## 1
Amino acid sequence: MPTQRKNSRNTRRRKTPELLFGDLWEFDPAPESADPKLKESYSLYIDGQQSAPKSRKYFESINPGTEKALTRIPAAGKADVNDAFSAATNGLNKYWSKLSGKDRGKYLYRIARLLQDRAREFAVAESLDGGKPIKESRDFDIPMAAAHFFYYAGWADKLEYALPGGSYSPYGVVGQIIPWNFPLLMLAWKIAPALATGNCVVIKPAETTSITALKFAEILQEAELPPGVVNIVSGAGATGQLIVNHPAAKKIAFTGSTDVGKAIMRATAGTGKGLTLELGGKAANIVFEDAPIDQAVEGVINGIFFNQGHVCCAGSRLLIQESIAKTFVQKLKTRIASLRVGNPLDKNTDIGAINSKEQLDKINDLVKSGVKEGAELFQSSCSLPGQGWFFRPSLFDGVTQSHRIAREEIFGPVLSILTFRTVSEAIEKANNTAYGLSAGVWTDKGSKILKMSTALKAGVVWANTYNKFDPTSPFGGYKESGCGREGGKQGICDYLKVEY
Ligand code: NAP
Ligand code: MG
């Protein structure tokens, strides 16, 4: 349990909010102690076997909280990717296509249960490798990954209810590529619906966060999943390109940046391959003057600082109604000053490490542009660890639509604040973006929620909450945020070729 030094928080809050979060009031360290059971070096997972890469190439996976290497990860080359697709084709023809939906579901249940059994170990590995706070990997990423396997296990023998009256078939072998912000969860979003619908998989995790994907191979072996049904090939962007261009890949499912998504769309155009793209976002989180203010402050904080802001649907553009803007921004600043930044493995950490040096440079670059273009920067004055890649939780007040920080995805703990006067101005500003992934609305009025959720061009609109996820709920974007949906019944349909 964290301990409190002297005086109660309430006493101090009533007097001087600044003192509360200064040197006088601290949490003792509370590091998570579970063993992540990391190996010195990992293998590719092809045809049900751990195999050394034919490329003979490896790279190091770095702990962004310490900048030290954790383990060696294989970089799959052309021969490895070819092997993975051969194994997947074989796995499909020999095993997976011969199983009933009920039996496929049994494997998915087994995977979900095994993941639950090793949840703490996976949570520590995820936080070490990616930098996210342990409370998030422990309470969100890993349980939610297991929940996706449970959920799609239930669909495996009920596909006809997802597509009543239609005739459908799986794509066959699908290629999947995932990003670094929710490594195991993105893997679950991809693999669970693909297997439930009868497809086999070749998947590539992101270069900076491959560990939990390669540990997941151990779970597949333990579950005795037939060989070739899932193949995991780690590597950089070049490995991703090999997957996209492989003729045996009948569908590509990609989550990542809009630039790479566009390149994949060009590469697959005219090939007949199926395609789903889950790309970037620049969500508006809109607070009306009739909103429950303190609840909205918490929602805005969660919307932008969850997972260091490395969230595609982060509420990175706050739109506040002008009449409450001053009070609201002041409350936000006080709350930001209380966020604890530091060791991702500490149970009290709110904001962990930035995933990579490259990402930290990108955040710094965009923050500099915000200052240069005239927005007003506020940053927490918290101390940062001496080593590792960290960034102070920040907000920009006085942002205008033309600023880069209002248009580009920062993908870090930085909030851009704009104001509006009327409902129509809020809608206009919220939709004035190339993206369309998510949005938030904070108001006491139900009719306003209904109007906004129709008018906002975003795949997900949260009302009086933010960043809520559930396997039953479809997720995906409009415009440059991508195409296709993951999660829910819609997630099933995107892994089937349908004929009516
Ligand atoms: P990224 O650079 O596009 O990388 C995503 C994945 O694609 C990684 O595995 C990457 O490998 C691989 N890749 C890179 N170049 C490729 C190429 N030419 N062909 C095929 N694969 C290639 O994105 P990121 O920086 O990892 O992730 C952050 C982005 O993902 C943000 O824009 C975020 O909004 C988006 N995102 C979207 C969702 C959603 O559901 N809409 C969810 C999470 C994240 P390397 O790791 O080796 O670079
Ligand atoms: Mg790493």
## 2
Amino acid sequence: RQKLKIGLIPADGIGQEVIPAARAAIEALGSEIPKPEFVDLAAGFELFSASGEALPEETVQALKDCDCALFGAVSSPVNKVAGYSSPIVALRKRLDLYANVRPVISVAANPEDKPDIDLVVVRENTECLYVKQETMSIGEHGKEARATRLITERASHRIGKMAFEIALGRPRKQVTVIHKSNVLSVTDGLFRDTVRAVPRVVGDGRYDSVKIEEQIVDSAVYRLFREPQIYDVMVAPNLYGDIISDAAAALVGSLGLVPSVNAGDNFVMGEPVHGSAPDIAGRGIANPLASIRSAALMLRHLGYAAAADKMDKAVDQVIREGQVLTPDLGGKSKTTEVLDAVLKRL
Ligand code: NAD
Ligand code: MN
């Protein structure tokens, strides 16, 4: 690549404050990455309120011309608003970003020490109950609501393969497949068996060094809280993955710290795990570290490990020193001051 074309979609609330910080951190990198070129793109609930469109077609088309993207956060109204549906859910579908990858890593007191918590949740992003096929009927005893839960071999294989690939790049090289096939033997059985079969189906011994384990989802959450150290890469169907990754974020403190990427075979989009935080939006105190880490994760996914390491180290150092932190971490600093502290260490 001669240059790296990065789409920026700050969207709503604090997305407008933290995505510019992530951009500044990328701009501060040197020769670790090709020259970045940023493309500002619109989406979100605020845009919908003004124009009637939450995800303009131009945004989707422009993204197809980018190498990668960063997404801020959207506000989704609690009560259904006619004509509105979440642009992030739509984008995951339109760009076939089938994996949501969320590393949850604590910062050790000494840079030489291993972090106490260091795991990655790999969540299937396209099916399970999120196909949103719900029906209501009237039965003998009143209303009956039903939902379709779709699990396909194709989606289970590709998310399993993503988990194995991520495990290969980590020291412990362990994949834990999360399921409930003791009860849901058909759907979760297919998920578990397909993930377990990935090394054999891929062949060539590529994953010989990866250890595969499995856990029933409820006990997996229990053990996640009791002994998070037992996990390395956790791979799960959409709903379990959603719940487990939010729960895991609680283990490391603030939502303002946890990054993610939405990844497909041809595109990757970084996105902080947090939402638009209307309670603090516009005050300049949003924590930009989750977004900066999401930018690092996006670059790592594209193969720019040195750039990602450099950004992650700078963020860890700011957290470890504890002098310049936003209020969510008990500090008094502004978004821009935390960003400056990161830039100084880059
Ligand atoms: P939220 O993540 O926006 O906020 C939860 C709490 O964490 C708030 O007190 C907020 O101030 C704090 N917080 C979050 N990010 C922070 C940061 N970077 N720095 C400092 N504090 C931070 O969740 P919510 O309040 O439940 O939802 C608000 C809106 O965001 C809703 O409309 C919701 O639908 C949406 N949302 C969007 C996404 C997404 O875009 N993927 C995810 C979750 C929620
Ligand atoms: Mn969630």
